[in-house]
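Quick start: what a row looks like.
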Amino acid sequence: MAQLTLPQLERHLYAAADILRGKMDAAQYQDYIFGMLFLKRASDQFDVAQAALVKKLVEEGKGREQAERISEARGAYKAHEFYVPYESRWSTVVGKSRTEPAEALNVALAQLENHNHQALDGVLSYISFTESRGGNTKLTKPVIQQLIDHFSDYQLSNDDFEFPDLLGYAYEYLIGEFADEGGKKGGQFYTPRSVIRMMNQLVKPQSGMSVYDPCCGSAGMLILAKEYVQDHGGDESHLSVYGQEDNGSAWAMARMNLLMHGVADGVIHHGDTLADPRHVQGGQLQRFDRILTNPPFAQNYRQAGMKFAERMGYGWTPESGKKADLMFIQHVLAVLEADGIAASVMPHGVLFRGGEEQKIRKQIIEEGRLEAVIGIGPNVFYGTGIPACILVLRGRDGAPEGRRDSVLFINADREITAGRTQNLLEAQHAEKIVSAYEGWREISGFARVVKLTELAKNDYNLNIRRYVDNTPAPEPQDVRAHLYGGVPRSEIAAREAQFEAFGIEPEGALFRPRDSDPEYVDFLSEGCDATAARIPELAQEQEVVLGRAFHMWWREHREQLAKLPVHQQKSQTREELLATFVAALKPVGVLDRHQLAGAAAAWWFDAKNDLDVLMAKNFKGLIDGWVRSIASAFEEPSPKADAKTKARYRAAMRKAREHRLVPELIPAYVKQLETAEALVAKLDAEVKAGSPPKKTSKAGQGGEEGEEDEGELDLTQVLAPKQLAALRKKQREAKLELAIIKASFVTELSNAAKELTPAQAQEVVLGFLNADLYARMTRFVTADRRALVDAFRGWGEKYAVTMADLEQEREASAKRLRGYLEELGYV
């Protein structure tokens, strides 16, 4: 069987959720899906390990029967390797599923945990396929059997994947989808991955360090800390990860997430971090180099019985009133190494609430433990639409020299992209935030370094807008220009950078000087609208320069990507491409550093999975994987699937057919398909127009039932019966031809992919990568150009029509009105 691609596996896992969707919500059925996925994965991987062991023993001279007997013993495998007992093997579950599928799964999970106690203690035992979930919701035998049959469709061993960490990526995808479906509940275990990546950029974990999350949810912070180390050329296996989670379901999810990513040494404890922190060494709290966390907002806590109460050395907030936020912060500070760095998501309330919280803030600030306060935009996090902030904290050694007498405030609440349900913090936004943090300087309306003395004067109120107000300035209104026309030079000068970026000299290209008044310029005689329409043309020369710089950079550096399957230096390639891209294109001046770095970083991230396949399978193997993913999208949904699921399958088919590989490899087929579809659409319309209209009833409207409303029917296009029959025959033939063409789609694409030479495959893939990065870059260019056009049109709306023009228009209208009245004899 061909190896699974990531899109295939994602669709397969999401389709498993379709079986349960509607019967219970995502917060309930996710445990069943994750449990079965983990069981199937462990069983399939063990089958491979067991077969390899038997083969080895036979080669060493043992009989096959003896080798198989030895391979059944736990002692035949290393302690850190998963051992799957007979009761937990998928073949056993399938065999027993026809009678008692729920019991077969329960036994399988329990035995898998019992035989791998160190890695799985408590992880699987909370999942029960026989107990009710969510009130009276209980899985029926047919539903469980359907799940087992579904998971039997694919093998999930490493040998079955296109690249090694494919299952980890798929697991993360599934967690994200469940969080999206879960809404507010999803926020309990899922922090948007773009936010986590930015937090890692702030604290910069390195190989050899320890990273800790006291409220780890599904372990996203820890997984992406390892990803950060790997992306920057470090050995992620030497990054130690630790976490604690109070919610049992999320804790189990975190443990499985780490194991799915191949992280067997992560230490994730179950329990309330405030009441009973579990990472203890020699009776003392363990300390960590880096801490990343997103604690639950607005929680209560109990001081009585709290272990390691000395953590709260800065003070206690009220136990009620949902004010435990600063208690989590104090825990973070207590377990942070002296030279450590932490980043924690927090609600804005911790910045300005008074009482005990103010006293705690005061001490944290005075001891130099707070380095930066970063405001994040609204509706970025699941479960809350309110904006949040990120606090960057330091260990006892405090911030580095030059930063110890101040706190950096960054107001990034506008650095978001609006989404359908959630706003997004994208790569360019993160780049701007991280750059401001690292630069530690004032950026008007965005960042400001505030001395501790000023914070003290403000009673340690850290409200971000108090220090960095990014409220847009009101649109300037020049009374003189409104009265007498012209555009103030001061307003044009305020947008000088926008004009310079596109190489446009406003005076001459867009305006003409006003000799009588040098502080103002006039619109050109062609009119404001005509000039605005020419701005894209005026900007084109500079955009062409940017395009040339881009293509020159690509020619110089494409070889790094071309040789990636050979040198396997992914992190070095990433660093080279991202750094040189900014260096090559920033001097052109069209886009700033943040836009360029953001475009390149987002491009690399989107291409990351393809690059993993590329390193494992070369260019031709990557294209073969695309073809398999496209082909798998044409699988039919289960006959029992609901309307929503069927609609999603149809959407996946359309998306697969629109994959950019299709017109690249089979352009003639695409043209044939489009021609056939157009013919069917044309014949459908002609048959509809030529068919007799349906009879209408006039019952209740004064006529007899069944009587035709002949006076209102348009019969001019109705065809004679023979003509209509002939047209319908053409329609049937066209639809049959279209069906035949569609049926050959996958075959045509597969054959074309097989005919590609390795060199041709390389050109196709590199062409796509080139086009993707160029498209990301030009989106910024288009947005900036549009903003410039809008600004110019804004001047037109304000100043193109003067008060004198309005008075003349009023007088002309009054004159016309008098004329009408005279004609009517009223004057």
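That is the whole record. Residues 758-799 form the longest helix (42 residues). The mean pLDDT is 91.
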